[in-house]
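Thread title: Can someone regenerate the structure for this chain?

I was given the following input by a collaborator and told the matching structure tokens would be attached. They weren't. Posting the sequence so someone can regenerate them.
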Amino acid sequence: MSRYVALGSSMAAGPGIKPSAPGAPFGSGRSARNYAHLVAEQLSLDLVDVTFSGATTANILTERQRSAAPQIDALDGSEEFVTITIGGNDVGYVPLLMGAGLPALVRRLSSIRELLDRDARQKALDGVGDALRAVGTAVRRRAPGARVMFVDYLTLLPPPGVAAAPLSAEHADLGRFVAERLEEVTAAAGQATGCELVCAGQASREHHPWSADPWTVGAGWPLPWRPAPFHPNAAGMRAAADLIVERINGT
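Best answer:
Regenerated them for you:
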């Protein structure tokens, strides 16, 4: 049975999508119905899922997260497939969307103002490309025989001109700016390091949270019995899994 290792943050882990993965560490938000589990089930792969909510590129490469070792330690060189979904936490993507949905009085807090500052987001984006390339390079080195695929983020916002209540038009525009740049630097990192790209963002443009057939969840309070706000829902994980399987099968 071919070995498949899944690396990434909550966008890959699937917080709130029931049931939780057996043995998932506390706080990981790792679902037994995330895209990695669905891919492994469909292709009969031996899955090692180390995705963890809140992970940054540093948590893949060098830094522990709670009780979990750096995710790259899961690679032993025998992998046939590796998927990576990472980068959003490095640039504050979902935190800015969560902050944008807070009451105006709360948005005055310095930490929230910083998240909603375009210059600050641009500065973070300027650095994440190097970090993503470092991830791609390190994974290729540790798993030289594997097909390594960056899977970018499912769409979290509607197109310009479509309301994204409770977010203002200004904050929705900032979110789209961050999403677009993150897609660009992820694609560039994949190309620079010999990794493949699964374009989940492009495939989900018409499936944003305010659409008739959403693959992601919009604004709201995080509650443990439902998918996290501004994260994939079960349909989104299934769609991402289908995209990965199509890529693997060359269809």
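Residues 190 and 196 are 6 Å apart (CA to CA).
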